[in-house]
Design brief:
The structure is a single chain. The chain is 23% helix and 44% strand. By secondary structure, the chain is of the alpha+beta class. It has a 6-stranded antiparallel sheet. Strand 4 and strand 5 form a beta hairpin.
Length: 147
């Protein structure tokens, strides 16, 4: 997918790699960056037993964390140097139970503003040689000065 966005920070890729490395919760879950570009981010999670809820489906909290973090990373690819993206609101639709050996999430910036960015995340379950869309999130992020 060709992006129409232009990054304001030439080091955006290192920044995104850093937020995946430094976010202890995300790292402990096993969520890993696959790739990113101006206005988008993709990550993956190999599903473990501790990701499952009582009925054997991937827990909604795991799906939501993956969608939120990916959206933040997609917004961050377009943030100016010295700024970071911080979620102020998100809505997630859980479309079907997550049953599979992995999750893949793709987040794309829908609108990048000077102070607010809106991104969309889609989470897919991977299994049986195919992917199924299990969740879709809309995430609103504020661009704030890094502290």
């Amino acid at each position: 997918m060709q992006s129409q966005h232009k990054p304001q920070n030439p080091g955006y890729r290192a920044w995104v790699e850093g937020i995946f490395e430094k976010a202890a919760f995300i790292k402990n879950q096993g969520i890993k960056l696959v790739d990113c570009g101006p206005g988008w981010c993709e990550c993956r999670l190999d599903v473990r037993p501790d990701h499952l809820q009582q009925d054997g489906y991937v827990h909604a909290a795991v799906v939501a964390a993956m969608a939120d973090h990916s959206a933040g990373a997609s917004a961050g690819t377009l943030a100016p140097m010295g700024k970071m993206s911080l979620t102020v609101e998100f809505k997630i639709n859980l479309l079907r139970p997550g049953i599979g050996h992995a999750l893949r999430c793709r987040a794309d910036v829908l609108r990048a503003g000077r102070s607010i960015t809106v991104s969309e995340s889609e989470v897919y379950v991977v299994g049986d040689n195919r992917e199924k869309l299990i969740a879709k999130a809309i995430v609103t992020l504020a661009l704030v000065t890094q502290g």
